[in-house]
UniProtKB/TrEMBL annotation:
Annotated organism of origin: Streptomyces resistomycificus
Protein name: Transcriptional regulator
GO MF annotation, one: ATP binding
Domain HTH luxR-type, residue spans: 869-934
Top-rank taxon, per record: Bacteria
GO cellular component, as recorded: cytoplasm
Glycosyltransferase keyword on record: no
Keywords from the named record: ATP-binding, Nucleotide-binding
């Protein structure tokens, strides 16, 4: 299906286009042909719409589906009008392919009907738009055409930009035009894919203006007149054509050398042409200019009973577009509408809005017109605007809600209930939700200049603090002032201390301080009867206590789960449910943890809470990974990572978790890349907690890849970071045994034993059985290095059995793998069968490859006693021995990497260790050792 809305422009527009536009038109066309997107920008009247239409007609034949939207300034306040233009005719054919939450969100946005959860989470709608474009693109290329991008309603613009930034290789291209006075087009590029071409349409030269006028029939003009037109128009083709039209209609054209007897701005030209229409036509056009989406039906409802004849007269004069646009009445250029509206007397503008306040069908539009028709304060108007803001908020358009809230505040009497400042603060909170933190901060600061009510002041301070995001250190001065304004009110103090808890964690990295502030906030909220804040504070306290290994964590979790629960936080990703899940997972209760997080994920999806869905999807993947279901964990982790990248939520957390899953069940090189990506982003954000978690993922991937030195370097940093943060529960990151194992491999058994001893003390105190079993596995390697082989075998056997009973399938398999390596000095073809079976059951492919490689028989024993160098060759670790054997066969580093499923860098690092252990300097020496072995 191809959706077209009068895209194929008449051929007459094409010569206008190429006049002075040949090079840029060719560049834009080339970018479109190459699969890219294009943004045309320039001042009003410069010809952007003409170029846009011509490019659309030129390229649309290559697209299966063509979607278009074109807005005006009067429409920009209504949410999702542009979205309706784009998707209104195609959504039915793909809606059945959308998840239920996305389908509901999209239907609510397009129709304004039905239950919507977007007030809680607008991400469902964002993902719905992205899913629709991807579904359309699956059937063939899609071209999205958007004219006058600057007038797109903020809700639609945000959705378009969200989708554009995440399309990747999806065959969806955007062709847009936007009005800019200078070079300020960068922020409009956010609505297009990252590699879009920005094309500025510059003013025409005098020669080009002359050619344009000739083509439009304004011929025979003196050269001096053409020069004056060029100067007066500034090279703007629309202005030049209007000046040419005015000259052609002027019975007394100016003499050569005389100034033009015409205005020098489009507004003046519009007013000049308006003199040719009746007062009734003027009123009809004014109503049309004030309307968001004027139609003949709307004009009739607004009292313009002769709208057909009056709009026809305006179209004949070039004020309205003559091309059919369906039922919509559209001005020939947005500037005409804007100039008409701006020049109308204030009384006439208010009358037009008053008529539209009853004629418009959309309640948000009616409320806006009512406000613009009213001067001064009016409690009924204010209430209507507040209700419209609530509807916009529920539709997932917080930016519109903020603007309507400010209008409501403006019309609220000083003694109104709620008061004007209360409505301003609601608008500020909507602005934060919309990401307009500067607006929110400005509103809050404005309220603080005059507000005397403590509740309003504290609420304003909370807006200031929330607007700071992660940069809480920048608003340190707000905390003591907020505390002073809160006075002795426990409810207000609870809000401040909850924010202080986050400050302690984010700014200072101090878990103890964060815990104390959260506990205090919970107590204050309980005294005030604010259950929502109490639950959030208790959940925060419980999670910090869990990570700290604090003995009160179970009690705090029970308090957070006690009834009554607030539905707004029951399945929130920072709510009590998450705290309970984390405790279950760290306490080895894997079955209950899976049941809990699955229920949370199901409820989040039912409510359309996409942000929470991202988090719970990742946590379910973590649970499956702990249980040894590596294939299932990898699928979930990859889904979580895709969603995180689509939504911009939890990208670091999802990347590091996917790294663990790849290292366990997928591709080790991909695991390394994801972990390094997570480390980089966490360090850029200054989040030390996630730096430690990302480094733990990197260390684990390095261990699986056979890079013991890299593992030690990464996990030593983790140990330092977690000591600084006050994290003592080893069940949180479970990196300790990996560090100990790597230390043994690099010849540091004493440090490995120290890591095990310190970690065991914490695990014993907290009753972390699985951690103790994994530490036993690592300690057995230390004992084997010391020559205590029988004790090592006994400890490994016990560890494997305990891990299997606890349900840690992958850790059980790793213990079997270590056990096989110790049972015989020279492994035979069947010694790794048990480990391979367990790895295969877990779908732990990287580990399975290692087990299969280790089971390959080593070269036959020489009859004579080996030379010292040959003894050293036998003493190499399994991975080192495999690499050395392949070098002996003449394999290159790249060939070795491919055969062992490791990276070239890992091969190089392994060879360095081989050289050091054997006391040699090159690959040639390894070959010589092999030759010496064969001659014995």
């Amino acid at each position: 299906m191809t959706v077209r809305r009068d895209f194929e422009e008449p051929a007459r527009c094409r010569p206008d286009l190429v006049i002075g536009r040949e090079e840029l038109f060719a560049g834009a066309r080339e970018r479109l042909a190459d699969g890219g997107s294009v943004l045309l920008h320039g001042p009003a009247g410069i010809g952007k719409s003409t170029v846009l239409r011509a490019l659309t007609a030129d390229y649309s034949g290559a697209a299966r589906t063509v979607l278009r939207c074109s807005s005006t300034e009067s429409e920009s306040h209504l949410p999702f009008l542009a979205l309706a233009d784009l998707l209104g005719l195609v959504v039915d054919e793909v809606s059945d392919r959308l998840p239920a939450a996305q389908r509901t969100a999209l239907e609510s946005a397009l129709t304004g009907r039905g239950e919507s959860t977007l007030q809680r989470d607008g991400l469902a709608l964002r993902l719905a738009v992205l899913s629709v474009l991807r579904a359309l693109a699956a059937e063939g290329p899609v071209l999205v055409v958007a004219d006058d991008l600057q007038w797109l309603d903020p809700a639609s613009a945000e959705l378009l930009g969200f989708a554009a930034r995440r399309l990747g290789d999806t065959p969806v291209q955007l062709l847009c035009a936007v009005r800019t006075d200078g070079q300020e087009y960068d922020h409009h590029l956010r609505a297009l894919p990252p590699d879009s071409l920005a094309v500025r349409l510059n003013p025409l030269s005098r020669t080009q203006v002359s050619a344009l006028l000739d083509h439009r029939g304004y011929t025979g003009l003196p050269r001096s007149t053409v020069r004056d037109i060029h100067r007066t128009s500034g090279g703007n083709p629309l202005f030049a054509l209007e000046l040419g039209r005015a000259l052609a209609e002027d019975p007394t054209p100016p003499r050569p050398g005389e100034p033009l007897h015409v205005p020098t701005s489009l507004r003046a030209l519009v007013l000049s042409r308006l003199d040719m229409v009746s007062a009734e036509v003027r009123r009809t056009l004014l109503v049309a200019s004030a309307g968001a989406r004027p139609t003949l039906a709307l004009l009739h409802a607004a009292g313009r009973h002769n709208a057909e004849a009056e709009t026809a007269q305006a179209a004949a004069l070039g004020l309205l577009a003559t091309e059919p646009e369906g039922p919509t009445v559209r001005f020939a250029h947005p500037l005409i509408s804007a100039a008409l509206y701006a020049e109308a007397p204030a009384l006439d503008r208010r009358a037009a809005h008053a008529a539209l306040s009853t004629a418009a069908s959309d309640p948000i539009e009616r409320a806006r017109h009512l406000a613009l028709a009213t001067s001064g304060t009016d409690p009924e108007v204010a209430a209507s605007l507040a209700e419209a803001a609530a509807q916009a908020r529920d539709r997932g358009a917080p930016s519109v809600a903020a603007s309507l809230g400010l209008l409501a505040a403006r019309h609220t009497p000083a003694d109104g209930v709620p008061g004007p400042d209360e409505r301003r603060l609601q608008a500020a909170e909507d602005a934060i939700t919309a990401g307009e933190v500067d607006l929110a901060r400005d509103i809050a600061r404005d309220v603080l200049t005059r507000a005397t009510v403590p509740a309003d002041r504290v609420r304003a301070w909370m807006v200031v603090i929330e607007a700071a995001g992660q940069a809480l250190g920048d608003v340190d001065a707000a905390f003591p002032q907020a505390l002073a304004d809160a006075g002795e009110d426990p409810g207000l103090l609870a809000l401040v201390h909850y924010q202080l808890a986050w400050r302690g964690l984010v700014v200072q990295g101090d878990f103890a301080q964060g815990r104390e502030e959260a506990a205090h906030a919970a107590q204050l909220a309980a005294r005030a009867g604010d259950r929502r804040t109490e639950l959030l504070a208790l959940a925060f306290q419980a999670q910090t206590e869990t990570l700290m290994g604090h003995p009160d964590a179970p009690v705090t979790i029970k308090r957070a789960l006690r009834e009554p629960q607030d539905p707004q936080v029951a399945c929130h990703h920072n709510g009590p449910g998450l705290a309970r899940f984390r405790w279950l997972l760290m306490s080895d209760q894997l079955t209950e943890a899976r049941t809990t997080v699955t229920a949370l994920l199901r409820e989040a999806r039912r409510r359309g809470m996409v942000e929470s869905e991202v988090h719970f999807l990742r946590l379910l993947a973590e649970t499956e990974l702990r249980s040894g279901h590596c294939g299932r964990a990898l699928d979930l982790a990859r889904e979580s990572l895709r969603t995180a990248r689509d939504t911009g939520i939890g990208r670091v957390a999802s990347a590091l978790l996917t790294s663990f899953a790849e290292a366990s069940g997928g591709d080790v090189d991909r695991a390394l890349a994801l972990a390094r990506e997570a480390v980089q982003h966490a360090e850029e954000e200054g989040d030390q907690m996630y730096v430690s978690r990302a480094l733990a993922a990197l260390g684990h991937a390095q261990l699986v890849a056979g890079d013991a030195e890299g593992t030690v370097a990464s996990l030593r940093r983790v140990r330092e970071l977690e000591q600084g943060l006050g994290i003592t529960d080893p069940a949180r990151g479970r990196w300790h045994a990996d560090l100990a194992e790597a230390l043994v491999r690099v010849g540091e058994p004493a440090e490995a034993q120290d890591v095990i001893a310190v970690t065991r003390a914490h695990a014993l105190r907290l009753g972390r059985e699985s951690v103790l079993a994994v530490l036993d596995r690592a300690e057995a390697l230390v004992r084997a290095r010391r020559g205590e082989h029988e004790a090592a075998l006994s400890q490994l056997t016990s560890a494997q059995d305990r891990l299997g009973k606890l349900g840690y399938g992958l850790e059980e398999a790793r213990a079997a793998f270590a056990l096989a390596a110790l049972r015989t000095h020279r492994p035979g073809p069947t010694s790794y069968d048990e480990a391979a079976r367990l790895f295969r059951r877990c779908r732990a492919l990287p580990w399975l490859r290692r087990a299969e490689a280790a089971a390959v028989p080593a070269p036959a024993e020489p009859v004579a006693a080996p030379a010292p160098a040959l003894d050293a060759l036998d003493s190499l670790a399994s991975m080192e021995r495999q690499v050395a054997a392949l070098v002996m066969e003449g394999a290159t580093n790249r060939e070795i990497a491919a055969r062992l499923f490791i990276s070239v860098k890992t091969v190089e690092a392994t060879l360095t260790r081989v050289y050091r252990k054997l006391g040699i300097r090159s690959r040639v020496d390894i070959v010589r050792l092999a030759a010496g072995r064969r001659t014995k």
